[in-house]
Amino acid sequence: MAILSTAVRDHRYALMHALMDREGLDALAFTQGDFFQFATNFATDVQTWERPIVCVVPRNGAPFAILNELSTNHWRFGIEAGKLWVTDVEFYAEHPRLSRRVPLAPQWPEMMADRLRRAGLARARIGADAAGGMLGRAAALLPHLKLEGLTAGCQSLRWVKHPEEIQLLREIAGLTDWVQDRYREAIRPGRLVQEMDMAMAAAMAEESARRFPGEHLEIMRCWTLSGPASCAPHGDGRSSGQRIEKGHGLVNIVIPRVNGLVVENERTWFCGKPDNRQAFLFETARAANEAACEAAVTGRPVCDIDAAAQAVIEQAGCADLILHRTGHGMGTLGHEFPADMAFNTRPLLENEVYSAEPGLYEWGLGGFRHDDTVVVGTRPEVLTRAPKDLASQTVG
């Protein structure tokens, strides 16, 4: 089953309770969309700067949430499907009503302050993923409440994954490997790069319908950079009309999100036989990627993942072609916590999940990058298994 069960909920709430115990807190409040989903299993459907939301998880008592009226029926679908972990929810309106009136958007702070009073938290010490904004305005209405920014602590809740989450990540990784196989069939000289990517996204949607029927698929990226444009990790800003040419190296990235979990899978391809320089940089990037994956060992420093990749690149004499760190955490977001892996010295924890994506970028030639999603363990588990040897990545 792709749906995250109450076992994952219990795992996450146990981490929350342990954090509250360490920090002496009475509750946690989550106001950002990704944290709200982490706490409720609801796929947040609004921009929280525009329509503020909150989920409060008390140390003692049931969690509760406040949402915008736009989410009313989406929330109801989630309840009917048995997916949601919070049942106590109230909605505020953003349009005036003649009947069945509820608080309006400008009354959000008052509504939140009242909800905290009714939950017995008017004098509480509450840690928040972000302590300002509308939540801060609500706290100001409760003179005995203490609201504390606890961003780093909340981020740490998302490091270690439950076995059920890792199993779902394996299944998502299998989908990305399948899409990479379709890229091998799709690359040809003259093809519009954006058209190819859209075709690959459509293929992913069809395959996901077979593998994950009725689940929540988000296609975050099917994106390719071809030729010299790929020397900029995010492209040259002129993608419309670009075509694959014979001799081009291509860097693609496949990122789906299923039921709130993300996998990254990137490969470097060649349309036609690569020249000696292309082959050398390809092999260097491949070796750096594999060294990074092998360094994701429980108990080693987080920064060892980056250091292992950099050592390979330095030895090859390509240090000046590095433009970014080796990777980042994976989970609810594509760029998950921790994001400071290159200089984070804490020990890696069992069942953390990382992107390992060292890259080389040579002006005028292109980019060379492979990205695997890897689970930390005494023996790291690489979830993405699409081939990345030079022969298999040469097409056309």
Automatic annotation (TrEMBL):
CDD domains associated with the record: APP_MetAP
Domain Peptidase M24 residues, every copy: 168-376
Superkingdom field: Bacteria
Alphabetized InterPro entries for the sequence: Creatin/AminoP/Spt16_N, Creatinase/aminopeptidase-like, Pept_M24, Peptidase_M24B
SUPFAM superfamilies per record: Creatinase/aminopeptidase, Creatinase/prolidase N-terminal domain
Entries under Pfam families matching the protein: Peptidase_M24 (PF00557)
Protein name, as recorded: M24 family metallopeptidase
Organism phylogeny: Bacteria, Pseudomonadati, Pseudomonadota, Alphaproteobacteria, Acetobacterales
